[in-house]
Amino acid sequence: MILKLIQISQNVDVDGEEPHAGLIVSISNDNPALVTCVDDERLEFQDDDLVVFSEVHGMAELNDGKLRKIKSCRLYSLYLEENTTNFGSYVKGCIVTQVKQPKNIGQAKSTVVASATALINPRLQIQKAL
User: Fold this and answer.
1) Coil, strand or helix: which one is 64?
2) DSSP codes of every residue in 80-126
3) Taken in order 107, 108, 112, 117, is the CA torsion positive or negative?
4) How many CB atoms lie within 10 A of CB 7?
5) Is the dihedral of CA 79, 80, 86, 89 positive or negative?
């Protein structure tokens, strides 16, 4: 008989902050799409962040809840890894919200303990992920 113990990986939000959000005033029909926020509000997103759009008027394709990746972010605008050339034209409104993905802080590892060893030494050891 062989016992197999598995340590499950743990996923956590590493910064503990609420997701960032921004109000949008324009979205271009380009590849990549240029998204511009209101003048008095800095975007606190970073390159490669994932975001979701809501309440978009005109460019309704962005209201689908799909995660979209930021290609490049500036203080008041960002470029999406998205081709919006065939989308409807942006009219007004839009909230863009960061979607945080949990970070994996451990890897699943297993320890195999032979039954004879387990009978002699019943202590079970779990390997910690580094």
Assistant:
1) helix
2) ES---TTSPPP-B--EEEE---PEE----EEEEEEHHHHHH------
3) positive
4) 15
5) negative
Structure tokens at 107: 């890897």
The token pair at 57 is 């008027």
The token duo for 111 is 């320890």
Query: In this predicted model, what pLDDT tens digit does every residue of 64-106 receive, in sequence order?
Result: 999 999 999 998 999 999 999 999 999 999 999 999 877 665 5
Per-residue pLDDT, averaged over 116-126, amounts to 53
Q: What is the mean pLDDT of residues 1-5?
A: 49
Homologous superfamily of 21-99: Ubiquitin-activating enzyme E1, FCCH domain (2.40.30.180)
Distances (CA, A) of 62 to 17, 67, 125: 25, 10, 50
- Residue 83 · residue 32 · CB < 8 Å: yes
Confidence (pTM): 0.67
**Domain boundaries defined on the chain:** 1-12+105-130, 21-99
